[in-house]
Design brief:
Blueprint (H helix, E strand, L loop, with lengths): L1 H18 L4 H19 L8 H6 L2 E13 L2 E13 L2 E2 L3 E9 L4 E12 L2 H8 L2 E3 L6 E3 L12 H4 L2 E7 L2 E4 L6 E4 L1 H8 L5 H5 L10 H16 L2
C-alpha cells in the first residue's frame, strides 16, 4: 500500500513538472545554481570530492535542490545539468531529470543537492542513454569524501557512477539505487536554440553557450586543480 501511494505521488509530481514548461531564464538559473553547488562543495577542502576521483572523472552531473517529500512513502525529483570531459576540455552542459521513490513511514520534506560523477567510459555511456536506472542499468556507489581520497578503492572496480549529496551543509556519499536518470531533451533544445543530440553536446561537438561558460569553467578548474595535486 505504501509503495503504491509513493508511486502515485511520484507520477503526479512528474506530470505536474512536465506540464510546467521551463523558460530559458529557468534553465539559466538551474545552470547558475549548479555552479554555486560546485563552488561550495569544492571549497570545503577536507570534505569535498577526493582528488583521485576528479582525476578520473569522465562526466559530472549536478542536481541542485532535489526535492524529497514524504507521507507514508517518499518521493524525490530533481532537475540538473551534465558536462563531460572531451579531448579539448569540458563539454557544454545538457539537462537531465532524476526521479525515484523511497518507501517506509516518513513525514516531512527536504531539499538536497546531488552530484553524480562518472568515473569511466561506462559511466559516460550511461549518460548518453535516454533513460537509465541507478543500481539496475548502471552500477553506482556512494562516493568517498576527503581531500586525500584514501578511502576504500572498491569504486574503481565496481562502480560506473559515484553519488554524493549535500543537505544542510553536510556533504557525503549517498545510495541512489532505484533512482532513474533521463535526458531532458525539451530543455536542452530550448537552451541551445535548436536540436542537438546529447552525444554531440557531451562529446564537445557543440560550443559552450555564453551563459554556461562559468559553470563549465568551475568544473574544469576542479579537474585541473586535482591534477596539480596528483
Amino acid at each position: 500500500m505504501k509503495k503504491a501511494i509513493a508511486s502515485v505521488c511520484l507520477c503526479f509530481m512528474l506530470t505536474c513538472t512536465a506540464l510546467a514548461a521551463s523558460s530559458r531564464e529557468d534553465l539559466q538559473a538551474r545552470i547558475d545554481a549548479a555552479k554555486i553547488v560546485m563552488d561550495q562543495i569544492m571549497g570545503a577542502q577536507d570534505r569535498n570530492i577526493p582528488m583521485n576521483i576528479l582525476q578520473q572523472a569522465t562526466c559530472v552531473a549536478v542536481v541542485p535542490g532535489m526535492k524529497k517529500g514524504a507521507f507514508f512513502g517518499g518521493v524525490q525529483y530533481g532537475q540538473g545539468v551534465v558536462t563531460c570531459r572531451t579531448g579539448h576540455g569540458w563539454s557544454a552542459p545538457v539537462f537531465i531529470r532524476m526521479a525515484g521513490g523511497s518507501f517506509g513511514l516518513q513525514f516531512g520534506g527536504q531539499s538536497t543537492d546531488l552530484i553524480l560523477v562518472a568515473v569511466n567510459d561506462r559511466g559516460l555511456q550511461d549518460l548518453l542513454k535516454s533513460k537509465f536506472k541507478i543500481g539496475g542499468d548502471a552500477s553506482a556507489a556512494a562516493g568517498p569524501v576527503g581531500r586525500s581520497g584514501q578511502a576504500a578503492t572498491d569504486w574503481k572496480m565496481n562502480a560506473e557512477l559515484l553519488s554524493y549529496s549535500r543537505n544542510k551543509g553536510l556533504f557525503a556519499g549517498i545510495d541512489l539505487d532505484g533512482t532513474s536518470v533521463s535526458q531532458n531533451e525539451e530543455d536542452t533544445e530550448l537552451y541551445f536554440g535548436g536540436s542537438h543530440t546529447f552525444e554531440s553536446i557531451l562529446k564537445g561537438e557543440v560550443p559552450v553557450p555564453a551563459g554556461a561558460a562559468a559553470f563549465v569553467r568551475t568544473v574544469a578548474h576542479s579537474f585541473v586543480t586535482s591534477k596539480d595535486h596528483k
